[in-house]
Amino acid sequence: MKDPVLVPVSPAELLDKKTILEVKRERIVAPEKLANVKRELALLTDIARELLAQVDPASGVAQLEAQLLQVNREIWDLENTVRACEQAKDFGEEFVRTARSIYASNDRRAAIKRQINLALGAELIEEKEHRKAPPHGQPAA
């Protein structure tokens, strides 16, 4: 199948996918993988450019997209750290701290995506619902 499957997504989902691909373009070194990333990124960049051309700069969406890029970079780094701990079979303090940072970063990512969708009056709004974690250092109830 040559043609991509077209799926309706929210503006924030588009920008999130685009920023994840930007992180991959920065971090992936394998030529074949990088070529695939660049191809997909080019397609999504064109669509995002059209979307953002219709957006009032005062909406703050450009700044939110920059925050999304930053949090996706953080998640990439955290994932690498937790995978290194896993490979070393080190499930101590660094593993736990990093795993907790991953879900905290994903919560920030979801909040940024929600802000983007609300700022743009998006019809599609992603919803999340997870159990609340106890504050750091406190046992679960």
TrEMBL record:
It holds the Pfam family DUF6165. It comes from the Bacteria. Residues 34-81 form a coiled coil. The keyword Coiled coil applies. Keywords: Coiled coil. This is Uncharacterized protein. It comes from Caenimonas aquaedulcis.
